[in-house]
Write a structure and sequence with these properties.
Structural class: alpha+beta
Distance between the termini: 24 Å
Shape: globular
Strand content: 35-45%
Radius of gyration: 13 Å
Length: 86
Amino acid sequence: PEDLEVEYVLAADVAYENRNFKPLIKAFRHFCQKGATVLLTEPGRVNGKEFVASLEKEGFTVSRSSQTVTYKDLTHQVSLTVLSIR
């Protein structure tokens, strides 16, 4: 709904298909303009990296960090991107 207001949006592993980029950017912009912070995680896919790189060009302030996580004896590098609107 257009009037939905939230403090945070958590988007985990959503940028794996290029066709989703524009709708995701539109949704992120909508919530950030209402004051929400978007938390985006992705496991290091090429498309995910391209998507995160495109967010700055789209007018978002982007803060990145990463963490190594081990689960069931498998180690993964997971990135966290925090978005807001400039």
